[in-house]
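Re-run with default settings, no changes from the original entry. Doing this only to confirm the output is reproducible before filing.
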Amino acid sequence: MDFVPDSDHQHHDDAPPAPQLDDIKIEHRPHSRIPSTVHPFSEFSRRRPTEDTIPRSTSPWEPFRTRLDFEVAEITLAASMTKDQTNRLFELMRRAVSAQEDFTLQSHDEVRTLWKMASKRFTPFETSTISVPHQGEDHEYKMYSRCLWSWALDLMRDSRFAPHFTFDAQRLYKFNGARVMRFIDEPWTANAFWDAQSRLPQDAKPLAFILYADKAKLSSFRTAKGYPIIVRIANLPVEIRNGTGVGGGRVVGWLPIVKEDPKHSKKKSFVNFKNAVWHKSFLKLLEAVILHSKNRYWFECWDRVQRLLWPLILILSADYEEQCVMSLIRGLKGKFPCPVCLVPQDQQSVLSDVHPLHTSTESLNILNAARSTSTQKEKEQQLKVYSLRDVENCFWKVSHCDVYRALSFDHLHSNHAGMWGDHLWSDLQFWLEDLGREAAVKIDMNFDALPRWRNLKHFSHVVGIDFNDGSTHEDISKMIIFAVQSVLSRANSEVGYLLLCCIRCYIDLDIYAALEVHTEDTIAAGRDALSQFSTLMDLYIEKSHPETNKNWNFLKKHLLTHLFDDIIAKGVTRNYNTKPNEKMHGPLSAIYHQQTNFKDVAPQILRYDHWLLTSLSIRDEINDLDAYTDNLKATIDSEPDATESPEGVVNTAARVQLGARQGDFSFADIEQSHATDRAFFGFRIKLNQFLNDSLPNDAIPLPNETRIRFQACDQITEFRYLRVNYESMVNWHLQRDLLRCNPKFFGSPRYDCVIIKTEHQLFFARLIYMFRCKVGVTELSIALIHPYDVGIGVRCRQDLDLGLWRVRAKPRSSSEFVFVDSIIHGAALASDPEAVNDYFVIDTIDTDMFLRIKALQDSSGLRFRHQ
C-alpha cells in the first residue's frame, strides 16, 4: 500500500513522506475521482463546522405570529394538554403577558390550525388503500406513509443537516507505528456502501436508507398495537442519525395489522395472506425509491451543487420475527430458518460451518419456477425446500437491493434478550439453584456490593427473578462474573463452572459486537472470541445434556456467525441495532394515551407526531438564531481597541478538573476529623515529604529554595468531584469520567477507583481525599489515594479461566499522595469476598475499559485458558 513507502525509496525527493504514528489515510472509491489523502491524527475530524452558518430565517416561529405564541403552543403540544387546558392557559397568558411581547393566541382550535400550517414544511402522511385476496374475497386495508424520497430531500435541503451528508464510499486506515490498519465505523466506511456505489453510474451518489419495522405496544395490556416504520439516513453521522433530533429516526409509515381469524389462523394460506398484506403495504412506502433506483435523479442540494442521487436500501433493522416477514422465509419451523443463509434446521448450533447465502435473484427464480408448476401441491413442495413463501417480496423491485444482504445482526434481541436472557442466564440459574438457597443469597449480596457506575444499573437481587428487558439483561451479563466467581467453582459444580467460562467468552464476544469502531485487529479478536465460545459451548452441551434437558440448537446462537460479516459489510452494530428504534415506541404509546379517542388511532398518532417534528424543527431554528445573535453581539462588544493585540486566547479545558468545593480546612482539623482512619496518619508530614521529593523532579522550584514545612494551622481546600478527560481506545475520541470522593453521596459513601500513571508504572488505586494547596505562588491539585499495587505473583487458574484482572491493596496506612494530573482514567473494582484486600477490575463496564484490560493482559503474556 502506498501509505507506507518502501524503505528503499523513502529518501527520494519524489517519494511520499514517511507516515507518522496515528496518521489517517482516507481512500475513496476510484471512479469518484477524489484522490486519497493522509491526515495527521490531530487534524482528522468527521465534524464539519457549522458555527458560522447564517440562520435560515429571522422569524423561524412563523406561521405563529410571535415567538411567544410559538413557545406557549410548544409547551401545550409537548405536555399533551387537552382543549380545555389549552384554552385556560391562553386566557391566563393574555392576562399576565408583559407589554414587551404580544401574546395573540385565542383558542385551542386556532393553535391546531397554526400547527397544520407550520407542519407543511415537512413531507406529509398520505393514506392509501391496498387490496389483497384471500379465500376468494378481496380484503382492503389502510396504509399510512409519507413519501420516503421526499422526506430524505427535506433533510438535504436543510442547511443544519445537509453539510453532514457523506455521499462517497471511503476506506479508512490508521498507521499504528508498525503497519497500516483499516478501521470501520460508519456505513460509508464499510464494504456494502463501497460495492453498491461501484455498481452505479460514475457520477451517482448513493442516498442510503436504514429501515426498521415492528409492532409497538400502545396500551399497557397489549390490547392496542401499532405498526410503525422508522427510517434513518445512512449518509449522516451516527450522532445525528441515532439522535432524537430532526435528523434522527423518523416514523414514515404505519402498516396495517391483520386481525387473527380463528377459522384460518396459523394455516399456510392465512400466513401467506398476512405476509402479502405486509409487502403490498410496504410497497407504497417504497414507490418513489423504486422509481429512482431505476432512473437517475438530479437534485440541487443546499450548497447549490447538482448531485445525481441514487437510492439504496442499505440496512434493514428488525428482530427475527420481522426479518422472517421481510425475507419471506418460513421461520423457525422451516427447513432453513435463517433469513441470511441456508443453514439446515438441525445444524444451527454448529458455529464453525459456513452455508450458502440466500440471494434475491435466486429466491425470485425459485418462486417463478414454483408458480409455473401444474398443481398447488407441487408449488408448495418446491417452495418448502427453500423455506420460501408464495408471496412477492416488495424489496425485489428496488434496484441494487438484495434484501438478504440488507438484513442485519440484531444485537439487542439476538444477544441480550436472546442468547443471554433466554439461554445462558436461565442455565446459570439452574446450576445456582442446584447449590442451594445460601448460594443465591451470596450472589445477591455480591451484586449489591458491586460499585455503582454511570450508565450501568445497580442490582440488589437478580437470582430467581425474571427480567424481560434486553437492556437489563445486558447490564446483568456485564456484572455476572464478578458476582458469581466466588460462589460457583470447579470444585462444587464442574459443569456449572464450565458454563461460567462459556459466559465469560460470550461477554467478550458481546463487547466486541458493541465496539463503536472496529479495526482489522478487533475483528480478528472478535472472531477468535466467537471460536472460543463455540468450542466451550460444544463441550458444555456435551457435559450438561441431558441433565438440564436443554436444546441448544436454536437460531439466535447461529446468528452469531453473521455478526462480523455484517460489521465488515455495513459498519459497527450501532448502525443497525434495533434499540434506538424500540425507544421510539414509548413516545408513540404516550400519544396514544393522551391524544387519541382510542378509535382509528393511526392518523391521530401520526398527525401529532408530525406536529412534534415541526415543533422540534422550529425550536432548533430559534436556538440557532439565538446563538447567532449572541455570538454577533459578543463579537461587537469585544472588538479590540487599536492599542490592544487582536489575538485572542483559547481557553482549553484541563484534562483533569476538580469540583464540588467544600471549603478551606486546616491540617489540624483534617487530622482530627479523620483520627480513626489510618490513611490520614501523619497527613501533614507525609504531604511535606511528597512535595519536597516531587516538585524538584517536576522542575517546580521550592519557594525560597527551602524545604516545604506546612504547619498545623495552614489550610488546604477540599474537593469531592473529579472530571477526567481521556482518549478512548475504541474510537480515539475524547471521553469523560465523572468520579466521586464523597463520604455521603446520595446518602452513601462513594470513593471511586482510578488508574494512575507515573513515570515508572501504571497502577490502580482508590480515592481517599482530594484537595488544592499553595506552595509559594503555585497552586497544586493533589489526591490522597489507597494504592492497589501489591504484586499478585502467579495468577490462579480461575482468574485466567474467567478473564479476571486481580489487584491487591496495600495496608490502608500505606496511603500515598499523587498529583491529580497523574490520574488518567476512572475504574470500577469489585472486591473478592474470598480474599481480603483483593479486587477485580470490572473490565466490562464499557468498551474502552475492556480494551485497556485486554492490553494489560497481553502485555503480561496472559491468556484466558478456559481448560
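The first strand starts at residue 24 and ends at 28. The chain has five domains: 57-120+598-626, 122-326+578-595, 329-390, 411-575, 656-859.
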